[in-house]
Design goal:
Elements: H1 4-18, H2 24-41, H3 47-63
Length: 64
């Protein structure tokens, strides 16, 4: 669940981005959907995964 402050902030961001306001109910629904989407798709990488990524990138850059 989102707090009243988070809902208000979402409304402000939405208004600035899209040029129109949305109701608290719409902001709550869209906010919850956004949080859920981020929960599903965002997975932090470990330091080891990051180091492997950098190593592959360097190797790929050298080949070019």
């Amino acid at each position: 669940m989102l707090t009243d402050e988070q809902i208000s902030k979402f409304q402000d961001i939405y208004r600035k981005r899209f040029g129109k306001g949305i109701s608290r109910a719409d902001a709550l629904e869209k906010g919850i959907k956004l949080v859920r989407l981020m929960d599903i798709v965002y997975k932090p990488i470990t330091i080891q995964e990051f180091e492997e990524f950098i190593k592959r990138k360097i190797e790929r850059d050298i080949k070019q």
